[in-house]
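Batch 3, record 17
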Amino acid sequence: MNQRRADSIASELEESILRGDYKDGDRLDETKLSVEFGVSRTPLREALQKLTLSGLIEHIPRRGVFVRQPGPVELMELFEMMAELEASCGRFAATRISEAALDELREANTVCQKAVENNEPDEYFKNNERFHRIIYRESGNRVLEQEAARLHQRLRPYRRVQLQVRGRLPESMNEHEQIVKVLSDGRPEQAANALRDHVAVQGDKFYHLLVNLKETG
Amino acid sequence: MNQRRADSIASELEESILRGDYKDGDRLDETKLSVEFGVSRTPLREALQKLTLSGLIEHIPRRGVFVRQPGPVELMELFEMMAELEASCGRFAATRISEAALDELREANTVCQKAVENNEPDEYFKNNERFHRIIYRESGNRVLEQEAARLHQRLRPYRRVQLQVRGRLPESMNEHEQIVKVLSDGRPEQAANALRDHVAVQGDKFYHLLVNLKETG
DNA sequence: TGTTCATTTCTTGTATACAATTTCAAAATC
DNA sequence: GATTTTGAAATTGTATACAAGAAATGAACA
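Prediction for the assembled complex:
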């Protein structure tokens, strides 16, 4: 890992944290990291600041930075907020979405469906993300779009776990199709509700997985 | 302006930008600012980074940082998103709010009402903010609360303008009372709609002011 | 043995020095 | 006269040096 610039350091660290390389409360040593990345402390500190703002680490003055892995409560809150943001995107998209975008959604669903049949989780995951990003975009509100995308990104590792819930994928596909339907019918309230439920279910499934994990592990 | 630390520099600059001291596209000179604040470039750059993350300035590599004052379109988008966030807070608060918090809301409204009668815009403004912050808090979702508060803060200067719209204050007070009512009745959908409309109106009023300003100015 | 205080070490925060890139302007070329 | 080229000045990005504050170690004392 030699001679990366400040920006790429930030995203590399972000990946690393999201991947789970660090535990909650772990301290990130500026000096250590700077030699690991082969840069001085200055650009490294800038990278850490970026991560602070995205909530992945906590900075305590004169003490250092500590990784903040969200606990069950915060995770549920994150999913809950994601559900609300998606609902808002859906509400706007219902009246603003273009025909071309509707076709894009349908195509993403088709690819997803095939991925389910062929048992290709990566392909499914990728096009599932694509599906949701299209809706964010078609909200016609750049600010909302960006915020939704940011949270979407933050929840990515946890969404992934959900793929392992038996029977969830076909169910999820049905929901997607229902979402496209109400969007193409131009019904804001239904679109909002469909998307809210769709994401909320993800949160619930994840929560149950968490609980089971704790009980059995 | 002597010897402030990095954190306070950030908030001071933030205030300054929100106050309108800089125009859209203005470049912020690191060296100049560092002597103004009486610090070296290192902490000043950290301050600028923070502002970048909150969207107030844009950082172009090797070119510098530039102030990003939102234009009419982005402002409408910001208000639109604020309306959605408040609606979400209201939806959750309707089922989660405590009796004590309801009393707090009523009290904030009482003070607001008095402020309207005595023509004290500052007092009105302060307690209006208090009203909304209580609702954020009572959403029972810390993540949502923080995000709402952040956007609320960002829109503060524009909300202020709205005070000058004739007849808006009494109208706004009525809406507040209606909001408390549906919250205390525990009706999520109504609470969401009431809050969404309440904020959306603010956006509309502001937009009309903007248009008038451009036509007459 | 346990507690408190002082000293040392380590880490973060800030200043300064240097390197790399861009911008601006003037000179050269067509 | 317009356009390209080249070089100087200015500005950002990075490294290093220094200052200030926290943690840790150990000695003195109860």
